[in-house]
Design brief:
Structural class of chain A: alpha+beta
Subunit structure (chains A, B, C, D): Homotetramer.
Largest sheet of chain A: 5 strands, antiparallel
Shape of chain A: globular
Helix content of chain A: 40-55%
Largest interface: A-B, 33 and 33 residues
Strand order of the largest sheet of chain A: 3-2-9-8-7
CATH superfamily of chain A: DD-peptidase/beta-lactamase superfamily
Number of strands of chain A: 10
Family (chains A, B, C, D): Belongs to the glutaminase family.
Protein name (chains A, B, C, D): Glutaminase
CATH topology of chain A: Beta-lactamase
Oligomer: homotetramer
Number of helices of chain A: 13
Strand content of chain A: 5-15%
GO molecular function (chains A, B, C, D): glutaminase activity
Number of domains of chain A: 1
CATH class of chain A: Alpha Beta
Order of helices and strands of chain A: HEHEEEHHHHEHHHEHHHEEEEH
CATH architecture of chain A: 3-Layer(aba) Sandwich
EC number (chains A, B, C, D): 3.5.1.2
């Protein structure tokens, strides 16, 4: 595995610099686009990594996977009364579908759906407790107590998240947000600002590749059925309106974040984290996606 | 395998009669809703089946899988200039997305996309030749020369396909249909009227489970990469705007038809055909889908 | 009046050549863009005109006003069960609204609505009779037996009207077209190809300015209420998704055609026909609209 | 005039009680649905009224007419860079069009457009000053210093206006709102809570019927051109997605409010205010609209 990821890393280093780093908040715009990291955590508990694998980045929308897992643990399939399980066919921050469908987001990985998931996590807790629980969960599955929220990014998001504020208020009008919008957004922006390096991220996602079990502990996080279902959602919805193309080219469940991070699951094999900050037109990591496609191809990882 | 499919068959027989047989053309409405057939073709060339497994039905939209395979063989990835690879987020016969996106259908499994695929097959051939080639292809992969088109159903569709006629003319206006609409529809309605029983259908789809190879011949139909990619499209788009939910619950690439047929692919294991004519609200087989879900669950077939 | 229209004509002649003549059918593309005609028919029966006022052009969508009037005479307010009375907020040939609203077009002046109106006119008659009745009606209100259909344009439209064919088939699927699509389109394209010069067109529309009465006969064509209501529809819907802006700038009920013709109604005063073939981005006569705006402003004709 | 409005009042009193009072905020739900008032202010300065003509109600969306007039006075036609002039074809609080058209509302009478107008009024002023200016303007044109904001209704709206909050944040994301959302909404909800009786409202709107001049003063509020243009906007957009039907049936520029108020303009004749709190399905006064239609018909007021 180590030679393979190093070969892929080497192949794509020359292309670094292409694409465009997200600049809708100043903190993200500061990141050097010439970064590339690849890490693979395998089912036997080993972690392979290369490139800028010790540099932390905020995981942004990848956090939606962990928040969903935690919320399903809290309310079970009742969650699906408030969020759908279908690809939306529209951009990640679109509001159109919400108006057509009475405030029920199509899936938990578009922003609207993630806000409802966060709203569910808030039930019975203060915002500080909620983000604490989520952080604790991520540390637990990653087996790493050093993972933390980047407070500067969290604050920066809070100041610019007009579209998310619109989505939350819109759903509140339909009764599909139950807490004050400021509280929901506060938790949401902090969950997006959870910072990890690629080794940590690969380890954090590994339970989805191992039928819900933790390689480093003798216990399961979720049932095998639930792990598979989360993977199914990642495959059909994890790359927003680029999910079909990603399934076609890469063939793995995955979730992307606007910071250039990618988490992909290879069932029964392991989990992969890739990071490269410059984005393609769809807002996903340009080089990261290409590197992941090559890695999956060379390793023969397609689930199809 | 045989005891398993018989157990599933037995479990769902009591529910036959629920749902509603498609009645938009008289020929489909005549079918007895109390039908249930299950067939599994495994990678080693065996076929297991039970229930009404010798009764032929028209495969309808399942034919889109075979037409796509043939068209990719003909024009390769140039096909994707005229059809997308994303879930549409809208019903199978919706025209809205076409207007927003200049006549380029989102994927080859919604009706608009399938019409473009058929239009591609027509290039350089007469309609009669085109449907002949498609039929020949299906016979070849199924290893069964007796498969034929049901002419009564084909004619009945021709008389009622107003929506498909609208879709084709609409795309013609954007230059994304190249042949006369009557010719395209003629071939399309005949491909939908290809009739098979479940054993034939399972065998016809098997090459998608075996990396593109034919179990009964020493040759490949398509490359492994292409087979995987067709499977990926079936997973994200094969059940129209129910694809996300189907992936969540069943976890297999599949394609449904309005006659109540279902084809599902279990990579490296085999292919499954299920048939039960009464439909759920999404227009897919009600009991067939439930039986397939149970079968996949008991066999542990999820790709996730 | 004569000096006024001549002054406006003179003012805009220097701008002729700007804009773009419709070229979706070859026959329209042949027209010299350096044409400008203005005619005013006043309630007392006089007609004033200037410029290329003796040159006939096909009235295209302006024919929708006469077809609607005739259809209302035939079925009365039952017509509104099949067509709405609201601005669509979308382009003249959009199909999106039809899918959202079950095949009921928003108003009789978008293409879909006009096709339903034509379908109504066909009830009980052959296409040839139907177009004959419409032509007879236009000749009657214009008091001019020489008005005729341009058969070359009619044929040319028939060969290129894919979008209209899509609209008609789409509505047929919803049961809102009752005759064969070919027949409906045949009549529709012939009604669009009715050719008049500006003097004839102004005279033909005059009954809408005179409470439904004919200046040249001692009789009414429609009731005052109906004339007012047709004017209301022209104001809110007559310029498609430019109707609001036209009302804002010109302040008169009007209907435009893709050949560069315009018919405007000044209640209790008279009717105005303007023609200049080169179009603006919305597909309405560029110089014709500007000349009409100036004329209305100088004459103080706004209904507001 | 007095006998006419009394006759219309008498005719519709028996129907009071039908329809449904707005209940999205508690304060509006408290109003007795058995109310009906009609007032007509004529160009000569007289005011006729009947029914509950001395009972004040909050004018809600009718305030958009006065806010637009004031904003046009402030920034002139620059306003149209940020708001369109077309009917939207969608409900008054729809957000879909904003996403399709980059945060530019279709017209100043849907909620999104009105929020931009309010945002314009805020430029250079504090919220308290802004609402003060608007109130002063309404008092000036109505010639009545007693008109005031209903603070209880204003507060109640503030607590429930999630949809408006979503619209404002959404436009802020596109840069089409320049002030803090809380400030814009604060002013907006206060302008909606301006309370008048029908006599006051008819007088306040009269300048739009008199070419922008004030009957009670020797001066103009706006130019004749601007008055006409505001009337044109009221006709095409004043009743949201019921504007076409209202123009068809009543034939007058008008603006409705969710409290059951209606303001209609009869150019060169006068202005009409009607109030009856119970609403039809479109959210406009049920009996008020019918009474206005009858009054316009009997008085022969249609502008068409």
């Amino acid at each position: 595995m180590q030679p393979l990821i190093e070969a892929v890393h080497e192949e794509f280093v020359p292309y670094l610099g292409e694409g465009k780093v997200a600049d809708y908040i100043p903190e993200l715009a500061k990141v050097d686009p010439h970064r590339l990291a690849i890490a693979v955590a395998t089912a036997d508990g080993r972690v392979y990594s290369t490139g800028d694998d010790a540099e932390a980045f905020t995981i942004q929308s990848i956090s939606k996977v962990f928040a969903l897992t935690l919320a399903l643990g809290k309310v079970g399939d009742d969650l699906w009364r408030r969020v759908g399980r279908e690809p939306s066919g529209t951009p990640f921050d679109s509001i159109i579908q919400l108006e057509h469908e009475q405030g029920i987001p199509r899936n938990p990985f578009i922003n609207a759906g993630a806000l409802v998931v966060t709203d569910i996590l808030l039930s019975g807790y203060q915002p500080r407790e909620t983000i604490g629980q989520l952080l604790e969960f991520v540390r637990y599955v990653a087996n790493d107590e050093t993972i933390a929220v980047d407070p500067v990014v969290a604050r920066s998001e809070t100041e610019h998240g007009y579209r998310n504020r619109a989505l939350a208020n819109f759903m509140l009008g339909f009764g599909n947000i139950e807490h004050a919008v400021d509280l929901v957004l506060g938790v949401y922006f902090h969950q997006c600002a959870i910072a990890m390096d690629c080794r940590q991220l690969a380890k954090a996602g590994l339970f989805l590749a191992t039928g819900g079990k933790l390689a480093h502990r003798n216990t399961g996080v979720v049932s095998t059925l639930r792990a598979r279902r989360i993977n199914a959602l990642m495959l059909t919805c994890g790359q927003y309106d680029g999910s079909g193309d990603f399934a076609f080219r890469v063939g793995l469940p995955s979730k992307s974040g606007v910071s250039g991070g990618l988490l992909a699951i290879v069932p029964n094999v392991g989990s992969v984290a890739v990071w490269s900050p410059a984005l393609n037109k769809q807002g996903n990591s340009l080089i990261g996606t290409l590197a992941l496609e090559r890695l999956a191809e060379r390793a023969g990882w397609s689930i199809f």
